[in-house]
Write a structure and sequence with these properties.
three-stranded antiparallel beta sheet, single chain, 3 strands, binds iron/sulfur cluster
Length: 84
């Protein structure tokens, strides 16, 4: 059975991952700077980002492994700059 992601920023359609633990919330469009949220923050405007969640978790795993100097091997490989 597929486990549904928790309703956190990391699994939200409005989230743009930047670091392994944080990113921008773009629920309000057109701002010159977007508020920074932690990956496990949440709010009432959460929307499921679907497959993006797995790409993001793969990217985080890859970054963490790279920072530890380990050989990187994740399900989705390393995906740099998945979002702009
Ligand atoms: S703060 Fe709310 S709308 Fe913004 S990314 Fe997190 S869950 Fe989504």
């Amino acid at each position: 059975m597929i486990q549904l992601p928790k309703k956190i920023c990391l699994s939200c359609r409005h989230f743009s991952l930047r670091e392994i633990d944080s990113g921008y919330c773009k629920v309000v469009k057109g701002l010159s700077t977007y508020p920074i949220k932690l990956v496990d923050d949440t709010c009432a405007q959460w929307l499921n980002c679907g497959q993006q969640y797995f790409i993001r978790t793969g990217w985080i795993k890859g970054r963490m492994a790279q920072e530890k100097g380990e050989k990187v091997n994740t399900e989705s490989g390393i995906i740099w700059k998945t979002e702009q």
